[in-house]
Amino acid sequence: MSFFGMDCVKKKEQELERKLRANDREYNLPFKYATNAIKTSKYNPFTFLPLNLFEQFQRIANAYFLFLLVLQVIPQISSLSWFTTVVPLVLVLTVTAAKDATDDINRHRSDNQVNNRKVKVLIDRKLRSEKWLDVQVGDIIKLENNQFVTADLMLLSSSEPLNLVYIETAELDGETNLKVRQALTVTGDLGEDIEKLADFDGEVRCEPPNNRLDRFTGTLTYAGQKYSLDNEKILLRGTTLRNTGWCFGLVLFGGPETKLMQNCGKSTFKRTRIDRLMNVLVLCIFGFLAFMCTILAIGNCFWELNEGSQFTVFLPRQDGNDAGFSAFLTFWSYVIILNTVVPISLYVSVEIIRLGNSFYIDWDRKMYYSRSDTPAEARTTTLNEELGQIKYIFSDKTGTLTQNIMTFNKCSINGKSYGDVYDCTGQRLEITEHTERVDFSFNKLADPRFRFHDHSLVEAVKLENPEVHTFFRLLALCHTVMAEEKKEGELSYQAQSPDEGALVTAARNFGFVFRSRTPDSVSIVEMGQQRSYELLAILDFNNVRKRMSVIVRSPEGKLSLYCKGADTIIYERLHQSCSKLMDVTTEQLNEFAGEGLRTLVLAYKDLDEGYFNEWKQRHHEASTLLDDRESKLDELYEEIEKDLLLLGASAIEDKLQDGVPQTIEQLSKADIKIWVLTGDKQETAENIGYSCNLLQEEMNDVFIISANSPEDVRQELRDARTSMKPGEDSVFLPESILGKGVKVMADEAVNGEYGLVINGHSLAYALERSMELEFLRTACMCKAVICCRVTPLQKAQVVELVKKYKGAVTLAIGDGANDVSMIKAAHIGVGISGQEGMQAVLSSDYSFAQFRFLQRLLLVHGRWSYLRMCKFLRYFFYKNFTFTFVHFWFAFFCGFSAQTVYDQWFITLYNLVYTALPVLGMSLFDQDVNDVWSFQQPQLYVPGQLNLYFSKKAFFKCALHSCYSSMVLFFIPYAAMHDTVRGDGKDVADYQSFALLTQTCLLFAVTIQLGLEMSYWTAVNTFFVLGSLVMYFAVTFTMYSNSMFLMSPSAFPFIGTARNSLNQPNIWLTILLTSILCVLPVVTYRFLFIQLCPTINDKMMFKVRQAKASPAPPPRRTRIRRTSSRRSGYAFSHAQGYGDLVTSGRFLRRPAFSRSSGLINAGRTTTGFSPMGRSAGYSPTGRPQNAKVSDVEVTSLQMYRTITDPSL
């Protein structure tokens, strides 16, 4: 255990293999496996005070002020009272400790909430309710429906047929579609028999704890037999049990050793770029302070040797105090006097400014999301100014850019487009919340949440348009969705992909209701009639086929093949009679894709019974081959999926969050690069990239990196870079290019705009040490980057790579547990409080409910915070350097005696009273332009990325300005008062009068300088500035009054100085002259700079003044429509293998009870389905109801309506 108790366990030897036995804690105890408790907090009641103080004194400034405090209690050295240091130091330590304690209490609460959840554990042959933290490796636990999985488990048995369980992995990979896990048959036979489970003594040998979510290797030894374990048998912590009554599992890994926690990454103390720069500057200031004190100490030594002997008559030296020892004491005396170059009030003020700007974020109503009653929250107060310097944004996709809600938006059937709404003049109307919705009340089984606005489609269904019926029949049959009906008429679908669920739901609402399935049949309700189709084959999806087909036999014995897939794939397999219909459909597909919809083409063909039987026999033979099975099956699929007849196309909207395209466009204009890191499939991520304007058709090229070997990945990266910079040498950067120290990789300019898409396999190779620089160099040349199928740890690795070699400020934004490691790795972590729990929010620095609020966080709050902090630091260093340097010049006129040039009360109150509020007012309220202009001119954000407002260069300019001002403030008053008398002939050239004049000149000079820095004057600012001057004179006249002197002569020695000096005209003329001379160079420099080379801020301020601070109303935001021919579809977000699972019966739930048809007026005639009181030929859209596309060849499907088919 560490000294402060930070480590919960001793670091044990590297675990090479895990061995455990079920129901045997004594056997497992010696291995010292981690318990299931998690700990993210840093302190406990005993360690808080020592550990927190230890951490705070690691800050150089705090340690420095503690050292000063020690010096000030030594009377031989100090000419200042100890309270001038101890009061602000204690204040800083207390405020920081209180903030740290609050943060840690919140972490404790979060840990306790998770650790104290209850779960049923099998102990002593009984199920007992235990806390999560008490669960140990080797325990058998029982989970019930909708429960979180407690630890990493081996599935033993479940309530479902064939020991299946359904889990949701949103917290791990961001996907909300259900996944299937299946227990071994030998453990599945244990069922829920407690006695059998208690007697289970299987031994598991498996891999040690690791962060790989997609693989698991191990073996189970039970009853003398050995069984293989893989990822399909494992339930990971962070997943949720769905649609499964109960299941039992054996705990393999607990708490910090679970794969979820292994992927969480380490919590690091985040410091802003300005903080790090401040540390460097403080060290420089310390060096400069030591340099000044050394010069003054040497000066004291010479003065004591040459002049000091003449004063020994009046000031006898103590024994042994020679010139050298006097110089030594003088050095430390000046360390105390000149310590105001780094005043502790600087750190107090910085914390107050950050806290104030954090409250602005919390209080911003424009970042409040009313639907979920979620305000924005600044969960940390130390990173605000960093928000104004972001260069790279790393975003999750699912739930962050999208709502993860798929909706059936439009479709094309037989060349006719459905989904748009038109007015009486034929003009297309924009669909809003108030647009009239289609009434599905005729269908009792309709999903009430489904929305559609084009009434003509439902009327086509009611009028029994055969093309429309066949379209929806295909959607109801060709899928792998599972239906669940707990109550009569209350259907819920469990789809492997959300877009497949959207298609089946659309068919359900339009009268073709998928009701249930068995391994060899699909039951649907067609317009009120229950019908069962024999399922003869599922030709499943894979990444090469990009399509799915089913072969079914209707109740009347008719054989049909229904197919849906990507347009380019289906078009190659259409019958030549569909050519003209295909052209029309293609135009409509382009229109759909231009709106960012996920498109899918549907086709069908009727099959001959004899041919199908012969094909089925060959299919059976191919499926039982041991060698070359996949290619044989593909050949058979190709053979039967040809000469298809085109039905139409569907268009699904993967709903983006509101304002996502506009936000990305704004951030891009601010020169912020956005990378999407998602666990989703490549094609899905690409499609969203186009929808949200991250990828654009106008781009010169979008590179796809999808190789499966290091050499191929390297070559693809080389080809991409060569395409972007043809004249560039494509030789790869050697590893030694960085040398011993890490150098920043400069941005490379390219001609045009490019995008990069890389999948998880390729990214794993690209992140290897030998290739990471090649990947980074290529990616940074692109405007947008999308990384697909990435693990949580890979997300963090990408962020770390950019942080390490680009030297840029990064921000990561996500909403799920799979984003936590990325959020922790970035300089700024933002959590979206959305559909996937609160894990991301709890680990974030800032949180809100919608991605669109990010632009306000950065372009408004971030930029203002950065601007205010930079102005504050520049001004603070100026006023304190000027204050301190006057002491330096005075030392040459006071015998280097460490005499202060100001009154001691002025020294104490200068930073705490006289100049504190004005600079805080500027730092809390100043803004160069308002939020509207900030959005209209996102280029204003760029100076923050380039560190233009505060840098080492700006600091040294400030120091030179202070040096000049201090010389003016010392020598002008000194010369003005030299040998000067009052109007009545009395002398005013004394030390106290000079001190009063100098400090008054100083206060006026720094106040005028503050006025020049301020861009936005408010009533509060004005009150602070004028009030501070009034306060100065009020305090000065009070302190220098007779009554105060009589009360304590030693504390208030400046009796009568104020009233004797400040009534003289020459004193006020001196104040005026010094003030003008101090600010004159600044005014001249700014005037010339603005005229000759104005910055973007100068130009914008000029525009604002021209507009009299009332900018024209922003242009009406129109929906961004993408003119793209690129299309994606259902096949792109599906997974291989579900067809086999359906037909094998392994996926099926228990048989449902008998059901009624669920439709009102279930007859099959038009009379039974009158079009809602309208005439049969009327269309609410004003278009002919059954208009055919001209010049489209008649297909067998179109002739279908003239044929009397008993199946209809």
Automatic annotation (TrEMBL):
The keyword Transmembrane applies. ATP binds at residues 396-398, 500, 541, 564, 598, 678-680, 789, 795, 818-819. GO terms for molecular function: ATP binding; ATP hydrolysis activity; magnesium ion binding; phosphatidylcholine flippase activity. Residues 1116-1125 have a biased composition (Basic residues). One of its GO terms (biological process) is Golgi organization. Residues 841-1094 form the P-type ATPase C-terminal domain. InterPro entries: ATPase_P-typ_cyto_dom_N (IPR023299), ATPase_P-typ_P_site (IPR018303), ATPase_P-typ_TM_dom_sf (IPR023298), ATPase_P-typ_transduc_dom_A_sf (IPR008250), HAD-like_sf (IPR036412), HAD_sf (IPR023214), P-type_ATPase_IV (IPR006539), P-type_ATPase_N (IPR032631). Its EC number is 7.6.2.1. Mg(2+) binds at residues 396, 398, 815, 819. It is a multi-pass membrane protein. It catalyses: ATP + H2O + phospholipidSide 1 = ADP + phosphate + phospholipidSide 2. Keywords: ATP-binding, Lipid transport, Magnesium, Membrane, Metal-binding, Nucleotide-binding, Translocase, Transmembrane, Transmembrane helix, Transport. Gene3D superfamilies: Calcium-transporting ATPase, cytoplasmic domain N, Calcium-transporting ATPase, cytoplasmic transduction domain A, HAD superfamily/HAD-like. It comes from the Eukaryota. Residues 21-86 form the P-type ATPase N-terminal domain. It is found in: Endomembrane system; Membrane. CDD domains: P-type_ATPase_APLT_Dnf-like. Belongs to the cation transport ATPase (P-type) (TC 3.A.3) family. Type IV subfamily. This is Phospholipid-transporting ATPase.
